[in-house]
Amino acid sequence: MQERTLGELAEHVGGQVRGDPSLVIRAAATLERAKEGDISFLMNRRYVRQLQTTKASAVIVAQAVDAPVALLVAEDPYYAFTQVMVLLHGHRTHKETGISPQASISDTAVLGAGCHVHPFATIADNVQIGERCIVYPGVYIGEGATLGDDCIIYPSVTIYERCRIGRRVIINAGSAIAVDGFGYATHEGVHHKIPQIGGVVIKDDVEIGSCCGIERGTLDDTIIGQGSKLGDLVTIGHGTKIGPHCLIVAQAGVAGSATLGHHCVVGGQAGIVGHITIGDNVTIGGRAGVINSVPDGQTMLGAPAIEADEARRAYAMLPHLPQMRQDIRELQNRLRKIAALLEGGSDKLEDR
Amino acid sequence: MQERTLGELAEHVGGQVRGDPSLVIRAAATLERAKEGDISFLMNRRYVRQLQTTKASAVIVAQAVDAPVALLVAEDPYYAFTQVMVLLHGHRTHKETGISPQASISDTAVLGAGCHVHPFATIADNVQIGERCIVYPGVYIGEGATLGDDCIIYPSVTIYERCRIGRRVIINAGSAIAVDGFGYATHEGVHHKIPQIGGVVIKDDVEIGSCCGIERGTLDDTIIGQGSKLGDLVTIGHGTKIGPHCLIVAQAGVAGSATLGHHCVVGGQAGIVGHITIGDNVTIGGRAGVINSVPDGQTMLGAPAIEADEARRAYAMLPHLPQMRQDIRELQNRLRKIAALLEGGSDKLEDR
Amino acid sequence: MQERTLGELAEHVGGQVRGDPSLVIRAAATLERAKEGDISFLMNRRYVRQLQTTKASAVIVAQAVDAPVALLVAEDPYYAFTQVMVLLHGHRTHKETGISPQASISDTAVLGAGCHVHPFATIADNVQIGERCIVYPGVYIGEGATLGDDCIIYPSVTIYERCRIGRRVIINAGSAIAVDGFGYATHEGVHHKIPQIGGVVIKDDVEIGSCCGIERGTLDDTIIGQGSKLGDLVTIGHGTKIGPHCLIVAQAGVAGSATLGHHCVVGGQAGIVGHITIGDNVTIGGRAGVINSVPDGQTMLGAPAIEADEARRAYAMLPHLPQMRQDIRELQNRLRKIAALLEGGSDKLEDR
User: Fold this and answer.
1) C-beta atoms of B304 and A324 within 8 A
2) Are A161 and A217 members of one domain?
3) Is residue C286 located within the same domain as residue C212?
4) Which of A288, A246, A238, A291 is nearest to A268 (CA)?
5) Residue C83: which domain range?
6) Which of A289, A299, C23, C351 is deepest in the core (most CB within 10 A)?
7) Are C271 and C253 in contact (CB under 8 A)?
8) Could you tell me the pTM of the whole model?
9) For residue range B183-195, what is the model confidence (pLDDT) as tens digits?
């Protein structure tokens, strides 16, 4: 934990101080729980009143406001707060264990300088690992897999053979990377396993949550694009291509042979069927079920998923359905009475 | 496995015997599969006819009925059956392995008396573990984590650093506790990882299923309240507070910064968005998608979730929608004909 | 990787060659990415135009067509392609490690001939393992569990005690088999754990994906039928019986005490409530939520799930709901005006 002045922080994030730049800031905290020496941030105008009561020494905001607390005005307060957190708290540090004699490492594996391999990790034949990688206990890295520099592989992760992983990739505990795709040919009622000869390519700066299942391709590779982030318990089907800088939230699943463009957001528990194409900058709402290709820039909600504005209007109707049905019945009844009133007209009206 | 008389069991659960209290009971079984020496229970009046045919020696019931089998009448038959099962069968026993020399335990870790640590478990620096804890193979307990007395941590569980776990906590195989929250600040199209400096607090008597992902908080702690039980493959987002005595069924997910009260039930595959408040004694149906705060005592169903009675009526309408649409069209047609019949009136009627 | 002539492949799959049977085939590939020496297949008539442009040396098809590429005509092209893939590429091979001295194997465990047990695997007391099984690093096999011949257990899988596993069973990384069912008796606001004394029986030729949770039964066994295949992150509740030759796709969940017949398909992220019966040859769509028993041969879609044709019609209505509601209001307005026009009739009409 580092200690900085508010002025130093402002300089670091390219923001402006409203108040005393010599204030000493030691930690980051929420508006609600901050105490003296803490810096907080205002994410949402809804919480602007909390600026009056927070015990924080300073608050990062998008626009200067009247408040009894020092402000750090930054264009993108959430990003500025992130920079401040990294500066004050840093990312997780990892013990420098070196290569544990209790790890099982093949003679044919090649590890770059500065790697740390914990006890009970297994590195199979012909694995190549870059520099400064950290391999936690219980990790298994299969034959011929490659990892770039500065990867962090948390405990009990399994990386099946020949997986290709870029630089600065983080894989959280328990995930299975390049597990066989769910591929069977059903013949005379029996499901015959199809060898999954494709691989998995994970590009630079990807983070994968805990307990995810990323399938290897049947023929082609499954690809997770550069800088994409997957939450916990996400599944990616065989041969699917996730573009760069996507966010795929916890428990979402993308079936096989789908293609996602760049900067897509897939909400929690959402599902995307296989063999479709999702454009760039597409947002899929939480729990949405996407069954058709989606053009660039669209937002989709609901299951089955439809365009967001349409979906909001449509799903808002659900509670009204019983009344709607009753209204229809009453209309039918009234119309029947009107038809009866209009002598001679009834024949034409009741022609159903 | 213990052997008891029906009279002893009745005394143990505070119930009444209808029949021979000296009957010897050796095991618990379902009504359908019970054989002589077994005790069963009637969970639901629907199955009351099975009392006529069961081969059980005795059956636990809520109310005495005419049946050719001895009865144990108890106010809460399900709980009585549980007590009987614990008495006859007991909970899982664990081999007394002691501290395995094949485990990797930091010199700075402190373990209470009576702990069993299996081979290939890793206990990092400054971990504190209470008495009589069982740590199965492949478990990783990160730096500075604490566990209370009598915890059971099943194989391949990962507990990230500084997690605080209470007494009698059970964590099933493959779960990841205090994994980093899914927190990124997106700046110029790149997702920057936000250090997750909060922790996870798991209170006494919590059980967590297999392959769960419980995220640590960004700033504040994620909390799982006393006596709450999580099923398999559940995800809990960063900074979320689950109250005491909640039941969260398999594959449900609660996003970050949500708050649940006490005695909530979250059905299987249900999802709760972040930053909302769920009151006490709330029931969320299986597969429900909750997007707004819910007051105490409500039951919510559907996605998007609405109050249960309303939801049952609304979702029951879905199969009728095509007919409703056709009815509307027919009404429009008939009305058009009526308007045409009513000379002179048509102008006013067709003013749409 | 084997090299074969097109004629040899045709003979192997029982198909006919259209073109030069002496063509040498070295690998399988998609139509799009195939190059000389590759064989591909036409799965869907939609892609028939790709036959004109593919660089594959041969393509497996269901019916002969005019194309500038050699064809292998087979009745079931997908199965034929699978047979060809197995012939050319084979299934994953496993290093012959023997029994690692770094594994922890109980003296009372019995292993058949030809088993390979990797470092850091744990095999508890009284486990019985058949011949030629492969136990990867970090696997835990609990007391008294049995495995048939030719099983493959991938890294970090946990098999709880007394689980009975058949022959040729594959369990992928991180899955938890025979974890305790989610069973609690709630008494005076406290959830009391019910001992789960049932087991799990996994029949021959089952494959289970990564990070699955298969619960042991409370009293009876949970059963996964012969030849059934489970995708990644699937959960199966306690006491549930899955029939033979079912396909359960990623992230699907079946709650406890449910029964599925043979040859059922459960789509990705679908959920099936407990205590219901799904017949034989039932198909449950992706994301469907099944809350009632389903007779043989039905296809169910949607949540709540209804029969597929009905569901397709019903869910297609969702985007029309706002217009439907507006139409109803307009009908009501017009009818009010008609009623006003019909002097004297209005009393009878507006009797709502």
Assistant:
1) no
2) yes
3) yes
4) A288
5) 4-88
6) A289
7) yes
8) 0.96
9) 999 999 999 999 9
